[in-house]
TrEMBL record:
UniProt superkingdom: Eukaryota
Organism: Racocetra fulgida
Stated name of the protein: 11446_t:CDS:1
């Protein structure tokens, strides 16, 4: 499922401490608004997949679950996403430059829309 792959790439991008995944992260963000939980049978199976991906990456599962908490349809909300990135930073994801670039990208996209 293409959308699952994109979300997996986002989890990888946001939980890495290097900028090498930055292009993947931007590509994913441009498509994230079209990604809907209702492509799954239920929210639980979606959350289970998120947990599997996070575990496979050896990262904190709650980081991936935070993406789900933005809202049910996973539409990006800058304020909520900003808080999510702050939580990532506080948990040890220290590439602040990458986070700032992502936020700038989201804000630019919101202004266009």
């Amino acid at each position: 499922m293409e959308n699952c792959t994109m979300l997996k790439e986002l989890v990888i991008s946001l939980t890495t401490s290097t900028a090498k995944y930055f292009p993947t992260c931007i590509r994913t963000l441009t498509h994230l608004q079209n990604l809907r939980v209702d492509r799954y049978e239920d929210d639980q199976s979606f959350e289970e997949d998120m947990c599997i991906w996070a575990e496979a990456l050896g990262k904190n599962i709650s980081l991936s679950i935070k993406i789900l908490s933005l809202d049910k349809n996973l539409n990006l909300n800058t304020e909520a996403f900003e808080k999510f990135l702050c939580q990532c930073y506080n948990r040890g994801i220290k590439n602040l430059c990458l986070m700032v670039d992502i936020l700038r990208f989201i804000r630019r996209d919101e202004q266009i829309n």
